[in-house]
Amino acid sequence: MDIGIVGLPNVGKSTLFNALTGAAAAAENFPFTTIDPNVGVVPLPDPRLQVLGKMFLSEKVTPAGIRFVDIAGLVKGASQGEGLGNQFLSHIRAVDAIAHVVRAFANPDVVNVLGKLDPLEAADIIETELILADLQQAQKSLDKLQGPARTGEKGAKERVALMETVIKQLEQGHSARSQNLPPEFTAEFQFLTAKPLLYVLNTDEGKTPEAFLQSLKTRAAKENAQIVPLCAKLEAEIIQLPAEERAVYYESAGITSPGLAELAKAGKKLLKLICFFTAGPKESRAWIIPEGTKAVKAAGKIHSDIERGFIRAEVYKYEDLIRLGSYKAVQEKGLVTMEGKDYEMKDGDVVYFRFNV
User: Fold this and answer.
1) Do residues 52 and 64 touch, judged by C-beta distance below 8 A?
2) The pTM is what?
3) Which of 9-13, 109-113, 246-250 shows the lowest per-residue confidence on average (mean pLDDT)?
């Protein structure tokens, strides 16, 4: 599942992307991937994984990863094809969620296309272009729906009525995200403003403008969105340091939780992902899957052969392992369960999949 990094030109998107991919390159044993020049898989920090690695004396410890896509800067009029508008919108359509980078740093050497620092205006420009694109999409879809409605096709009139409501709300500036539409409806029509949203407030080093943060939080609350403040420039610089020096640098900068770690955790929450683990002497590894994923599909996350030949999943809870101190103790307490294909995976499950191909 992909998160697209969007924003106006010169807000720090590429700097953030470089910091994220630098984090991947710096993560021990992480299978760093650059699919295209602007797509990278970055590690999701999870302290539970490190604990498992130590308990099982694992040769390798491999975190899960989230794909971030650095999308070209948008300009006003993108919905009408201005700048790289059409390309920009198609790239957003392809991702599962949006990380909207908003400028809150005052570097005079980096041209501010707005001419001032105004996160809300910047957010409005992009949201407006996405709403206009959705409006075009909705109007075209309405035309296609009216034919079946005229012939009396079951459910067609209700779909027309819902689309008309969507159009009315979009015309009033309300995103699809804020309309509480049925998930299958938004999925079918691929509304850009229905995608989960995360604001990244890109600040100056050591400074988070409280007024900007609060105003963006108010906006985010209306949109069911999240917000993460960070200094992309600082994060990109720190991630280039040797591992043993990074903690010292963060401490000296007064940063208690690295921005990239907070962004990765916010991305996991945004996409409604959970994390399960496989653990043993060869490797302890974290895997991320959508909430509600069944055991057989989780097995396929590891390898298609495991999904195809699935027999059962031996599952126990990370919390039970920590509480009891060893896998053997978990077994003795009868807390290792044998689950079938339809078992719904839970965050923190430690799993061994049995299969036969």
Assistant:
1) no
2) 0.81
3) 246-250
Task: Look up tokens 């420009």; give the residue.
Answer: 125
Residue with the two structure tokens 């201005």: 82
Q: Mind listing the pLDDT tens digit for each residue in 130-158?
A: 899 899 999 999 999 998 888 888 888 89
- What residue has token string 């302290």? 47
Q: 87 pLDDT band (50/70/90 cuts)?
A: low
How are strands ordered across the β-sheet holding 337-339?
A: 60-62, 283-290, 273-278, 349-355, 310-317, 337-339
Q: What Cα–Cα distance (Å) separates residue 270 from each residue in 167, 196, 207, 264? A: 26, 6, 25, 10
CA–CA separation, 117 vs 140, rounded Å? 37
DSSP 230-274: E-HHHHHHHTTS-HHHHHHHHHHTT-SS-HHHHHHHHHHHHTTEE
Give me Rg for the CA atoms of the chain.
23
Number of alpha carbons in the 13 Å side-chain half-sphere of residue 186: 17
As a dihedral over the C-alpha atoms of residue 217, residue 222, residue 227, residue 231, rounded to 10 degrees, the angle is: -60
